[in-house]
Amino acid sequence: MMLEGKVAVVTGSGGGVGREIAIHMALAGAKVIINDIGASLSGEGQSATPAQQTKQIIEQRGGQAEISTDSVASWDSAGKIVQSALDHFGRIDIVVNNAGILRDQIFHRMSPEEWDSVIGVHLNGSFYMSRHAATHFRKQESGAYVHITSTSGLIGNFGQANYSAAKLGIVALSKSIALDMKRYNVRSNCLAPFAWSRMTSSIPAETPEQKARVEKIMRMGPEKNAPLAVFLASDAAREVSGQVFGPRMNELFLFSQSRPIRSIHSADGWTPEKIAEIALPALRPSFMPLDRSGEVLSWDPV
């Protein structure tokens, strides 16, 4: 019961990784607001059924949960989600920013709408939810954020410029929250899930290589990500903030963050020609390759 007495809001918890996090937080003693608008993977349509199914599972296992079907993608509706925790349970201690949609498209064909809609849910939604909760976290001088990022942003992927930008932006948002709110005993961390869910079901599986990759991902259930989320939200992680983690089957990763990896100095300064002649050959061996996440994490999950 690591979350006994705490109240958690888990966005996008009508299915997949979000549902498993909500269930496990309830099993750990938290009272949970299940937030999900019940839309399709592309953000279309709306139904309370997914959230109701999560609530039923939690209550069948002896937990407490209520439902919010408001969207994270606008300031006012995100405020209603946070307020629902106060209305139902009297406080808020944990925010899990998990809600998301996909509009996969190769970059040179991506429309402004495909860009804006993904940024709106993932990045803006994470800010709106976090900012509304911050008012209450400051007053009580405690609180924990768990933001869901992705290796599409941390490493890279094809056809996901909008999603990748949003997910890497969430890492920067989390680090800023961790820095700004440390004085209030508020922590902020990121979790990059590895799981087969709606968010990964759109991965192409046409070539033999693609099919093999999808088969690996399908073996990774969304429930494998929940224990880390519970830990990061608990008082056991009181000294953990500003970090990026990834659970992959029975592996746990701590991801690096951007730091200088090589430097050279010229006492007379640099010209473009001098950079081409001296700096480029010196720095080139340390260039990062154009990898995708599946190429960096190439071994089979066990």
TrEMBL record:
Domain of life of the organism encoding this protein: Bacteria
InterPro entries: KR_dom, NAD(P)-bd_dom_sf, Peroxisomal_Beta-Oxidation, Sc_DH/Rdtase_CS, SDR_fam
Domain spans labelled Ketoreductase: 6-211
Pfam (any one): adh_short
Family from the record: Belongs to the short-chain dehydrogenases/reductases (SDR) family.
The protein, known as: SDR family oxidoreductase
